[in-house]
Predict the 3D structure of the following.
Amino acid sequence: MKKILFSFLVVAAIAAAPSKMLAQTNSANTPTSVTIINPITLTQVDGMSFGIIGVTAAASGDATLSTAGTVTLTVGGLTLQGGSSRSAHYYLSGDAGKTYAVTLPATISLFGGSGAPLIVSDLVAKCGTGADQAQGTITGTLDGTGVDEIKVGGKLTIPLSTTAADYTGTFPISVAYN
Amino acid sequence: MKTKVIILSAFMAVLAIPATMAQSLVNTPATVTLGTPLTLTLQPSSPNLNFGNLNIPTSQGTCVLSPTGVPTYNNVVGTSTPNSVSFIVTGGASKTIAITVPSGTVALTGAQTGTTINLSDFQTNLPTLTLDAITGSATFGVGATLTLNPTDKDDTYTGTFPVSVAYN
């Protein structure tokens, strides 16, 4: 229906055009290009989870979640206590062979205890089988069938005297064609 | 020619709509649970998995020791009282934990002969348990099956096996 409507508009425009305009020189070499693209679509498979970390009153430090989903603790009395850690995981679909950019926030706030929120920073993403890339410079390439996957990790900072609790938050991730 | 240009322009207008969909955004949850670290210690009153004294059988036999220390002899004669091993676990009040015992066999080595006999089929009476709501502690036992053969030597056999706990 849309096409038909445009045809009518074209006809109407020609009909309404003053004869003077038609007498003008044809702009035969007007460059015109059209790029038809599939929308790029990001689908979440897993959320980000640091698992269960043991804290004491004197404990503080960092928990770094790799894009492979493994948590590494710095010194400071923190201990891994089970639970399943995992990196955030997404599937991506769009135009085959096209490159895309990933945008992540600088930090994520996790709320749950009685004190200030816990902060996740230094987010990194791994696109397909590529290397980890830091926020601000993350790019990937859709494969020959127009799909790819992204995994995201980051660094959780646990300050002194953080109370034991379940902490949760959300963060936005967006992808766009380059 | 003019007509052609106008038609292309019309298509451009239509295509401008999917162009705005060239971005996709997802809000993702992120979580961590901070908890009291788990500790696992041997119960002083029963710190060893002890099968007691057993006679070497004339054909293969077993002694199955339950997590609560009850022995079941199959073609083996026991001549002293065995006991299972008990553990005390502490952590966050009311939290549920999982216990992991060996899934394969563990060899016990004779002090004199250096020969080995095998422990297998480790079991715990509480594969998962909930820590006390007030004290944050709980106890559990571990048992196993010892297999003896006629070729085994007179000796005192010892070994170690790992037990671990983690929050569910």
Notes: Residues 18 and 24 of chain B are 12 Å apart (CA to CA). The interface with chain A takes residues 1-3, 5-8, 10-12, 14-15, 18-19, 21-38, 91-92, 97-98, 166-168 of chain B (CB under 8 Å). Residues 38-167 of chain B form one domain.
